[in-house]
Amino acid sequence: MKRLLSKALVAVKHLPALIIVLGVAAGLLLGLRAFWLSDARIVLRDTAIAMIADRLAGEGVPIDVPHSTNDDQIFLVYNTFTNAPLLAEWAYQIVPFFATEHVGGRIYPEVIILAPFVMERSFVVAGNTDCEGRRVNVNDRFLDDQADLLTTLTHELIHDQMGNFCTPPDGYSGDRSVWVESHTTTATVEVTAAMCRYGNQIACQSFWQQISQLARRSVQAKLGRAHLSWLYQFWMGVTMRDHLEDVRAEKMVRFWAGNQDELQGIVERYGELPWETMVSPGICGEVLNTGVIQWSRGFLVGHILGMPFDDSRAMFGRLGTALFCVTR
Ligand SMILES: [Zn+2]
Predict the structure, then answer these.
(1) Segment holding 211, helix H or strand E
(2) Domain co-membership, 30 together with 135
(3) Which domain does 32 fall in, by range?
(4) Based on the domain organization, do 196 and 252 belong to the same domain?
(5) Mean pLDDT within 155-177
(6) How far is the CA of 155 from the centre of ligand 1 (A)?
(7) Which of 100, 150, 301, 326 is most buried per CB count within 10 Å?
(8) What is the mean pLDDT of residues 221-226?
(9) Among the listed ranges 45-49, 90-94, 165-169, 253-257, which one has the minimum average pLDDT value?
(10) Do 97 and 193 share a domain, yes or no?
């Protein structure tokens, strides 16, 4: 009885310490839980992805694309009129992958023109197409990186496959460009993954560049909403940019000064949105609704093609995919 009493007294003596330890542990757990449920988890994950993907992409490689600068010299390459034959040749290598990747594959460009874009578009738009006219324009300012050029061309050729890449479905009341751009951006990721898996080294670079850029946009959007854009700029400056990129980025920051809301909107709609609502779900097993109707041997089969992300998953590897999906 006496021993029991002395044990109880010891326990009471240590009670405050015990309460403190339990309190700290509970606080840590609650903090971890709040972190896990907040944007901070995604910011941390996407920061890591952006840096790893940037490493895997490697340095940009400039490319010389011979092209004529006057109307008299337009070449016919296969069935495409162009002033830059190399781009037409690339197009005929890219489009067949649309068939294996379920984004169409029946539609080839009628015209591909490599030319300077005018006004502000010269700096911010790498390419465009009018979908239905199948005319693809590529901005000649962006020849400083062959992988970037492949991404642009693939992106524009996917727009031309119609479906959700060109027109939103009936009854959709949002912004057309947000709809078609997020579908096209997402499909471009998987098509370049497929091309890489088939042995095209430029496509491998292109894939990792896109993953790095989308993850960066996700971080930029979230830090922007938290009024921490300076932290994003600091991170980019320290880890990702060489000197020329730095000077350019600094120039673009001045260009956007006073239009911060507009920039934030662009980053959210064209980067964060496709990354979170389409690319990430795709990598974690969902299928992208392309809106493109399937044809087989010249006949309309009738059902809408869904695009699985098997090649992107293979690029991430089993462990990478598992880690990525568990933190979603
Ligand atoms: Zn586009």
Answers:
(1) helix 201-225
(2) no
(3) 1-37
(4) yes
(5) 93
(6) 6
(7) 150
(8) 94
(9) 253-257
(10) yes
